[in-house]
């Protein structure tokens, strides 16, 4: 079984990217379009180290980027035949480019040329902490993923989850007062079957295209439509990979990250202090955890 790994990446400190962003962003800054959502904590470097160390069976790694070559990290070894840069214009409808909305990019990942039937998806802040195997993610004819019923109050993010459930399995949504109870997968490396994803992309083509937007909006659908479709078909079994979510809020939250007793750790940007200082603190912690350069990095 060939298994690929897909990672979206963005660095808002890149001048060319920032120039494009400023052309399209509204004067009103909120959660959906604030530039801090696109900060690079240099976690991709350590994510790749963790994949090489704990998931050596991964075939190719596809990193999705936008706007220009200046997005490519200076340390990335593009000579490594397992590394593939994918530009958003190769997969996303051109009328939505440039796009600053990961919901849109995620929906079109199945279009990546050469992508294997079995692939994994994770944001660039996911670090693998211990050895994982293909069987942790895939069954003989389906996937393993921890999907539960979560309660959401309505706001931009939860509305996109509601939309995704409503598109694929509306009967699984329960409304209780001002909350919704529905299937969701909270922070996980998500396994996919490309052929099944493409069927969903074609079947709901009109609904998906109507949901697209350059920045995040409450009308969006998300990648959740793909595992929900597999669940509906009986091709999803409950997984048991333990993922720990860590919010990077301040100096103490970085210094006290607990890397023990989990399979994967997610380092989510909620930082409001000096970013460069926080980034240096996190780099020190991650360097202690994964000190050896991977083959995906330039060696000099």
Question: What distance lies between the first and last C-alpha atoms, to the nearest angstrom?
Answer: 34 Å
Helix content: 25-40%
DSSP strand (E) fraction? 15-25%
* CATH top-level class: Alpha Beta
Individual helix count: 9
Largest sheet: 5 strands, mixed
CATH third-level topology: Spore Coat Polysaccharide Biosynthesis Protein SpsA, Chain A
The SSE order reads EHHEEHEEEEHEEEHHHEEHEH
What is the overall pLDDT average? 93
C-alpha geometry? globular
Unreliable spans: none
CATH-defined architecture: Alpha-Beta Complex
> What number of domains?
1
Rg (C-alpha, Å) = 19 Å
Structural class: alpha/beta
The count of strands amounts to: 13
Sheet with the most strands: spatial strand order: 3-2-1-4-10
Describe the 3D structure:
With 300 residues, the chain is of the alpha/beta class. It has a single domain (3-289), classed as Spore Coat Polysaccharide Biosynthesis Protein SpsA, Chain A (Alpha-Beta Complex), CATH 3.90.550. Helices cover 29% and strands 19% of the residues. It contains nine helices and 13 strands. The chain has helices at 15-24, 43-54, 102-107, 156-168, 194-203, 205-211, 225-232, 251-255, 275-289, and strands at 3-8, 61-65, 83-87, 118-121, 126-128, 143-144, 148-153, 174-176, 179-184, 190-193, 236-237, 243-248, 264-269. The strands form four sheets. The chain has a five-stranded mixed beta sheet. Strand 8 and strand 9 form a beta hairpin. Helix 4 (156-168) packs parallel to helix 7 (225-232). The longest helix is centred in the last third of the chain and has 15 residues, at 275-289. The protein is globular and about 55 Å long. The two termini are 34 Å apart. The model has no long low-confidence stretch (mean pLDDT 93).
